[in-house]
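Lab meeting tomorrow. Look over both lines:
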Amino acid sequence: MAVESYDDRIDPVGACVGMKGSRIHGIVRELKNENIDIINYTTNTSLYIQRALTPAKVSSINLDDNQKRAAVFLKPDQVSLAISKGGFNIKLAGKLVDYEIDVYRDSDEAEVDDVELEEFSDEIDEWIITELKNIGCDTARSVLNLSKEELLRRTDLEEETIDEVLGILAAEFED
C-alpha cells in the first residue's frame, strides 16, 4: 500500500501503522495474517519502484515509460529479497507501481564466460526460461549456482525439467 500526506508534520506510514503497530495489526488479523507493506507514495517512478521493492537495495533502474517496463538491477545478494518466495514481492510491486518489473543481477565482476538464458531458446522452452527469470536467474551461471533442491523449491518446474535444464546449461561450459 502506498500512502501520502500533504502535511509535512505527519508521517503517513507511521500514521497507518500506529503506535507499536496498533492500527495495522487489526487489519492484518482481519486479513488472516496477510502481510501488508506500507510505503511512501511519490510521483518519481524510479524512487517509487525502489520503495516498492524494499527491503532490497536497487543498484539502478532503466525505465521504458512507453511500454511501462522497468529493468531493475540488483546485487546478487539482493535479488531474492526483491523477488521473495514465490515471486510475490516482485508481482505486488509491479501491480502497485503499474509497471512490468524485470530483475537483473548487477555484478561488480563481469563474468565474460556467462551466457544469457535467451541464448538457449532453441533448446529450452520459453515458459521455462520465464520461470527461471521470475526467480532472478537471467544467465546460465545464475541457474547453475543454485542447487537442484533450491530450483525445485523456488519454481513450479518438475524435477525432470530441472535436470534437463541443468544438463543443457552445464554442457555449455564443458571444455
